[in-house]
Design brief:
The complex is a heterodimer of chains A (235) and B (414).
Chain A (H helix, E strand, L loop, with lengths): L1 E11 L5 E11 L3 E5 L6 H8 L7 E6 L9 H10 L1 E4 L11 H10 L5 H14 L15 H13 L5 E5 L7 H16 L3 E6 L2 H4 L4 E6 L2 E7 L13
Parallel strand pairs in A: 3-7, 3-8, 5-6, 6-7
Antiparallel strand pairs in A: 1-2, 1-4, 8-9
Helix pairs in contact in A: 3-4, 3-5, 4-5, 5-6
Chain B lengths: L2 H14 L1 H37 L5 E6 L9 H5 L6 H8 L7 E10 L3 E3 L2 E3 L2 E5 L1 H8 L5 E2 L4 H5 L4 E4 L1 H8 L8 E4 L2 E8 L5 E2 L2 E2 L3 E5 H9 L6 E6 L5 H15 L10 E5 H44 L1 H9 L4 H40 L11 H27 L3 H6 L2
Parallel strand pairs in B: 5-12, 7-9
Antiparallel strand pairs in B: 1-13, 1-14, 2-5, 2-13, 3-4, 3-8, 6-9, 7-12, 8-9, 10-11
Helix pairs in contact in B: 1-12, 2-10, 2-12, 2-13, 4-9, 10-12, 10-13, 12-13
């Protein structure tokens, strides 16, 4: 069964902007897919629909076989919490809050027992190589470290799918490289990754690239010569 | 998400903007402090007044001439009434009319100065029975004796004076047997009351008591009384005695319609009830005025919560993207708002208690009142309840605004 099935999805905003003009594709569990395109192509709109953060105006989108209409608002929140993880370009960490507390945030909204939360968060932080920064406040971290905390937060509930929206957009190349390395490692460990990026080089870290132009899929190809990030710091 | 988690998040939210949170709750703090102070002072005043009324004696019934004053226009009728005569005292004194009666004493009020040599003093002066007064208030002359029944019958020119009157007129020399002048008439001092200050409504230190017969005949030239005091066997028979007094006086005054009574009866119980009712209404009125300040404080809280929701739009979006439900966000902001006002309430209770205590300290130690500090537990509980309710009421709108934010829009917000 496909994890994601998108069938002729369209999105038109109230001001008349047609961000998606009929998009169809599907993603299997364990795939690493990059959605790429220029600014305004509709890739962020697609991510919002895929992440149940927004609704399409036409077409069907199924996640694990169900559409957004099959869920109540409470259930949608639960799906976002347990089944999906989000990594944003601007990190979106809570200021004046420690790395540990930031990573624990999704656990607060799940049914995980309080006594287990610290342990799960520490494991996720370890997976992104930031064990030494657990007690630091997010403001004390570099951009690259912030994004790694964001990835740990996306991972902590062991979701089926991780959405990464321009995760290297605000980072220098070395930090970006580390972030991509983590995403590739996670993918190898079985996580499905949907990467949204406008950078071709970053997109080529995925195994499949869907290129969007003016709200339509221009191409959907497998990457023949995949970029591999250095495997130096992740154990 | 557990309630503890929500509390932690809400508390963190408040800590982020400490000075703003403090200023926001100032309105609530002031409101609750004022309510605590009003209720505490109200209680204290009630206790003080009731204690003084208590000095009057639960077995005492006072009959006054004229209509019972129900409003300002009745006061003139009461002040100038001349309906209580000696014949009434005689009728009331008969066991067949008022079986419960133990003692009956009329009184008149005399206004004017007392003097001796070049010294003059304006006392509270009564034509009364000094013996009766001593018994009722349990104050006996420390020098001399209260004048006797025969002094009253014989219209003797004798007086018992308070300690301050004595001091003003005689200094440190003895007053017993000496004359004082009241309205160009000499009165021999037969007794001096000890220093006692305020007892019931009388300042005993500033009192001059002369026989009521003397006051009527030689000072006032009247044949009526300003008051008739009746003592009954026990407080339990007061109600029955009041009914008997009313029936007797209506008969002697030929009154058939009780609404046309030209006298009225005052008892300690009745006064206590009246004073209690007046103080309760006053406290309620003042509290309602203060309640307005709580509404203003509540609007301040709502305003700041709305600002906070707007400021934290991105945080709300993030929480929703990470799995927070609308209910989670609503609860978080509601608790934040209730925590804000609840803390305000707690601080208000603390300050209110402190100020009430300070007030009672000043009234007791500087003004010499026998004021008792009471911690108004009910007002404290009400204060906490009201402040949290204000937080809930004025937090609902901002919290709902927060919970309804679309996560996508919220995350895009800059």
């Amino acid at each position: 069964m496909h994890l994601i099935e998108v069938d002729n999805v369209k999105k038109e905003y109230p001001d008349g902007t047609r961000a998606l003009r009929g998009v169809s594709f599907s993603v299997r569990k364990g795939e690493f897919v990059a959605v790429t395109g220029n600014s305004g192509s509709g890739k962020s709109t697609l991510l919002h629909i895929l992440g149940f953060l927004d609704r399409q105006t036409a077409g069907t989108y199924r996640f694990e076989g169900k559409t957004i209409d099959d869920y109540s608002r409470e259930e949608i929140a639960h799906v976002r919490n347990k089944r999906m993880g989000f990594v944003f370009q601007s990190f979106n960490l809570l200021a004046r809050t420690s790395v540990l507390e930031n990573v624990k945030l999704p656990l607060l909204y799940s049914s995980v027992e309080e006594s287990l939360r610290d342990e799960l968060a520490r494991r996720a932080i370890e997976a992104v190589g930031l064990s030494h920064r657990v007690r630091h406040e997010s403001a004390q971290l570099s951009g690259g470290e912030k994004q790694r905390v964001a990835i740990a937060r996306a991972l902590v509930n062991k979701p089926n799918l991780i959405f990464a929206d321009e995760p290297t957009g605000n980072l220098d190349s070395a930090s970006g490289q580390k972030v991509m390395e983590i995403l590739q490692t996670l993918n190898e460990a079985g996580h499905t990754i949907m990467l949204i990026t406008h950078e071709t080089y970053t997109a080529e870290h995925a195994e499949r690239i869907i290129r969007i132009l003016d709200g339509k899929i221009e191409s959907d190809t497998m990457v023949s010569r995949r970029n591999h990030a250095r495997r130096s710091f992740i154990k | 998400m557990t309630l503890k988690d929500t509390f932690n998040i809400a508390f963190d939210g408040l800590k982020t903007n400490k000075s703003r949170s403090a200023l926001t709750i100032l309105g609530i703090v002031i409101g609750i402090t004022a309510i605590m102070l009003i209720v505490s002072i109200g209680h204290g005043a009630e206790k003080l007044i009731l204690e003084q009324l208590g000095g009057m004696g639960a077995d005492l019934i006072v009959v006054r001439p004229g209509k019972e004053p129900k409003g300002p226009s009745d006061i003139a009728d009461t002040l100038f009434a001349d309906s209580l005569k000696n014949s009434d005292v005689v009728a009331l004194g008969k066991k067949s009319n008022v079986p419960d009666i133990v003692e009956i004493v009329p009184a008149v009020i005399v206004s004017g100065n007392v003097s001796r040599g070049g010294e003059t003093f304006r006392p509270a002066m009564f034509g009364w029975s000094a013996e009766f007064m001593s018994e009722v208030f349990d104050i006996y002359p420390e020098e001399g004796v209260p004048f006797s029944e025969s002094d009253i019958r014989g219209k003797a020119s004798v007086a018992v004076i308070g300690s301050k009157v004595k001091k003003e007129l005689f200094g440190s020399s003895s007053a017993l047997g000496e004359n004082i002048r009241i309205k160009n008439r000499n009165f021999r001092v037969v007794g001096v009351f000890p220093q006692r200050g305020q007892v019931s409504f009388l300042n005993v230190d500033e009192i001059v008591v002369i026989p009521y017969t003397t006051a009527q005949s030689y000072l006032l030239g009247i044949d009526y009384y300003h008051e008739v005091m009746v003592r009954v066997g026990s407080p339990d028979v007061v109600a029955r005695a009041v009914r008997d007094i009313e029936l007797t006086l209506r008969e002697t005054h030929n009154i058939t319609d009780p609404n046309k009574d030209d006298f009225f009866v005052v008892t300690q119980k009745g006064l206590v009830e009246q004073v209690g009712a007046i103080l309760s209404v006053l406290t309620l009125f003042l509290s309602s005025v203060v309640a307005i300040s709580l509404v203003v404080g509540g609007i301040g809280v709502m305003n700041i919560m709305l600002v906070s929701v707007t400021e934290r739009t991105k945080e709300i979006g993030l929480r929703k993207a990470l799995g927070a439900t609308e209910r989670d966000i609503l609860t978080q902001f509601l608790i934040e708002s209730m925590l804000l006002t609840g803390i305000g309430g707690a601080v208000g209770i603390l300050l209110g208690t402190l100020f009430s205590f300070a007030t009672s300290f000043v009234l007791t130690n500087i003004f010499g009142l026998s004021w008792v500090f009471t911690f108004p537990l009910f007002a404290a509980l009400l204060g906490i309840g009201v402040s949290v309710a204000v937080g809930l009421l004025f937090g609902i709108y901002p919290a709902r605004q927060a919970s309804l934010k679309s996560p996508m829009e919220a995350l895009r917000y800059e």
